[in-house]
Design goal:
The complex is a heterodimer of chains A (375) and B (292). Chain A is 47% helix and 21% strand. By secondary structure, chain A is α/β, with parallel strands linked by helices. In chain A, the strands form three sheets. A seven-stranded mixed beta sheet of chain A has the order 7-6-8-9-10-14-15, sandwiched between helices. Chain A has a five-stranded parallel beta sheet with strand order 2-1-3-4-5, sandwiched between helices. In chain A, helix 3 packs parallel to helix 4, helix 8 runs parallel beside helix 9 and helix 11 crosses helix 12. The relative contact order of chain A is 0.12. Chain A has two domains: 213 residues, Response regulator (Rossmann fold), CATH 3.40.50.2300; 128 residues, 3-Layer(aba) Sandwich (Rossmann fold). Chain A starts with a helix and ends with a strand. Chain B is built from twelve helices and two strands; from the N terminus they run αααααββααααααα. The mean pLDDT of chain B is 91. At the A-B interface, strand 7, helix 7, helix 8 and helix 9 of A face helix 1 and helix 11 of B.
Chain lengths: 375, 292
């Protein structure tokens, strides 16, 4: 009995010392960065795009010798787009003292669930995809490189009303927090710009039949449709509008519809759609050009807008670590002061809430490509 | 706008009616609700797309092919998932149906991915619209309504005027007695599943062509509405399912159009509840014209 106890005890000591040794040696020669995005579940496509963007950024910096001569190592976790899973993953990453900062999470609900954990342990997270207004108040350690829906919605309305001269606006939006939030922003700026909302129709995510809504739009004398939704439904609206005599109707949206799927599903019907966004794969900007060609080379497909956000979030994290060293709080303090950091989605600065400030681009689809336009 | 919305409602109602027929025929004979029927509709749509995309068939060959394939799938489904437990209680059958539903959805996601697919790239059908005053009709819309009505008339003829129709009605009245009278009830049940699945496939193809989209989970909302339409019309009654489908399509469209588009589904189910309060057996669900 005594003997067993002793051998158990000694093996326990051996195992724990192994762990301790493992951690100690890792600390000295690599820099660990956490990546917490949905790799399975409904948001998996966007989550994987972000992961690819971050991996590309890490590969590039390692090829140049890493950060301060230390290689970057990514710790990739799957939050499944589920807030409770996000909290588990956040705990895991925050407890690992070698993880200096985190790129994540994607869904606003997940970012909000993880934020208290990051704030408590004092590790910074940079979200590449959470655009809900509530994320502003998530705490000092939560940053994001995507603007709120309000910023894009207001900018879109300025474009539509001031530059394109539309006076009667129809809004079709999905029946979710995102869609109705965007519809509210558009209604509010329509009031400020003194134009009319002549139709405001909600639809369920996954709807295929837009005949009722489009008939109402056709009877409302609207001169533009603004979509507060995602690419699948936007493609269907663009295709079905011609059934109701709306061939010439202009469709506008925000960058949530920027996706290959919009072009694939919409075909010719989506040509001419205008949207605000921060990333264009045919941009002449050298940083974007480099990113797009490297991404295509690495993954044999076009980068989506979320891949670009993932890449930018990683660049900001790497830059902060490079300048602030390996102290988690110093990294956060440096990041808060970043001004006009050039990424592929524009020049990033952060306000006091950790929300990014940058000017959206104006994009139009021409011949199945997203092109930057002036008007 | 009223006439235009009526046409929109009849179009979507036609698809509900075609799917509802499958629910009501199976219920009429076996007294079970085949919850996998919405997914049969989805698979039918994908079969048609597959024939056009991969085998590059023109639509007039691809559609009959898909209908036959879906009918066979329906028969196989009955053989594997329902026949072995035909004498078990209805709860067991319901669980089995939910299992089939989950299986088909995941199979479709494995085979074709989770994304939305467009028909227009492969069908070779171009939409042309005709304008009368302020009503716009498209060729596909007309085809949609004509084809769904035609299929319902053919079905009505089969059930009421042919030998196999007599056998179907006999089986639905009393399965044991029908067996004693020398009717091969297993064959009749398989035939019913086959017809119901083929009609669901046609609905899937029409929806695919008209709205130009199909995705693996599309069967959920269409299946649920069509089931509600079958109950609304009086489940077990074939004319009831047809009427229920059109009533549901028109009510939800008019509600969405004059009250709020956001509550579209709510109108569909509200009319169901209202009708069931006053006529618990559904609109045409009387004892006399009950069942297949």
């Amino acid at each position: 009995m005594k003997k067993t106890m002793f051998s158990l005890f000694s093996s326990f000591i051996l195992v724990t010392s192994l762990f301790a040794f493992g951690c100690g040696s890792a600390k000295s020669d690599v820099i660990k960065v956490g990546v917490a995005v949905p790799l399975t579940g409904a948001s998996a496509e966007d989550g994987n795009a972000i992961k690819n963007g971050v991996k590309l950024a890490a590969k590039e910096i390692n090829a140049k010798g890493g950060i301060n001569n230390k290689k970057v190592e990514l710790v990739i976790e799957d939050d499944k787009g589920d807030p409770s899973e996000a909290a588990t993953v956040a705990n895991k990453l925050a407890q690992d003292k070698d993880v200096l900062a985190i790129v994540g999470h994607f869904n606003s609900s997940c970012t909000l669930a993880a934020a208290p954990i990051y704030n408590q342990t004092g590790v910074v997270s940079v979200s590449p995809g959470s655009s809900a207004a509530a994320v502003s108040k998530a705490g000092p350690y939560t940053f994001r490189v995507i603007t709120t829906d309000a910023v894009q919605g207001a900018s879109l309305m300025n474009w539509a009303v001031k530059d394109l001269g539309y006076k009667n606006i129809a809004v079709l939006y999905e029946n979710t927090d995102y869609g109705s939030g965007l519809a509210d922003v558009i209604t509010k700026s329509a009031n400020e710009l003194k134009v009319n909302i002549v139709a405001k129709e909600a639809y369920e995510v996954g709807s295929t039949d837009f005949s009722t809504a489009l008939t109402k739009v056709a009877n409302s004398k609207a001169d533009v449709i603004i979509v507060g939704g995602l690419y699948n439904e936007t493609a269907l609206i663009a295709k079905q509008k011609k059934n109701f005599g709306l061939e010439k109707m202009q469709i506008m949206g925000v960058d949530a519809i920027y996706s290959d799927a919009l072009l694939r599903l919409g075909g010719d019907a989506v040509n001419g759609i205008k949207m605000t966004g921060y990333f264009s794969e045919v941009s002449s900007d050298p940083v974007s050009k480099n990113f797009v060609s490297k991404f295509k080379e690495e993954y044999k497909k076009d980068p989506s807008t979320y891949a670009a956000y993932g890449y930018d979030a990683a660049l900001i994290v790497f830059d902060s670590i490079k300048n602030a060293g390996t102290d988690r709080k110093a990294i956060r303090d440096f990041m808060a002061k970043i001004k006009n950091f050039k990424g592929v989605t524009g020049e990033n600065s952060f306000d006091e809430n950790g929300d990014v400030i940058k000017q959206p681009l104006r994009l139009i689809i021409q011949n199945g490509k997203f092109i930057v336009t002036d008007k | 706008m009223f006439l235009q919305q009526m046409i929109n409602g009849i179009t979507v109602g036609g698809s509900y009616a075609l799917i509802a027929l499958g629910y009501t025929m199976v219920y009429g004979i076996l007294k079970i609700v085949n919850f996998a029927h919405g997914d049969v509709f989805m698979m039918g749509s994908f079969f048609g797309l597959f024939c056009m995309q991969v085998w590059e068939m023109p639509y007039y060959m691809a559609f009959p092919m898909a209908a036959v394939a879906t009918a066979i799938m329906g028969i196989v489904m009955e053989r594997i998932a329902y026949r072995p437990i035909r004498t078990a209680d209805s709860l067991t059958v319901m669980i089995s149906a939910l299992g089939v539903s989950t299986f088909l959805e995941n199979l479709a996601m494995l085979l074709w991915g989770t994304g939305t697919h467009a028909f227009s790239n492969f069908s070779g059908i171009t939409i042309s619209t005709y304008k009368f005053d302020n009503i716009v009709l498209s060729n596909i819309q007309i085809g949609f309504i004509v084809l769904s009505l035609l299929l319902m008339i053919i079905l009505y003829f089969i059930v009421n005027k042919t030998k196999i129709g007599v056998a179907m009605r006999a089986t639905s009245h009393n399965i044991k007695t029908a067996k004693l009278m020398g009717i091969n009830t297993d064959r009749i049940i398989a035939f019913t599943f086959g017809i119901g699945s083929a009609l669901a496939c046609v609905a899937g193809l029409l929806v695919g062509i008209y709205y130009d989209a199909v995705y693996p989970l599309i069967g959920y909302s269409y299946g649920l509405k069509a089931f509600a339409a079958a109950v609304l019309g009086g489940i077990g009654s074939i004319p009831g399912a047809m009427l229920g489908g059109f009533v549901m399509g028109i009510v939800e469209t008019l509600g969405a159009s004059y009250i709020s588009n956001g509550y579209r589904d709510a109108f569909a189910f509200a009319i169901l509840i209202i009708v069931l309060i006053f006529r618990p057996a559904g609109i045409l669900g009387k004892k006399e014209i009950d069942k297949v």
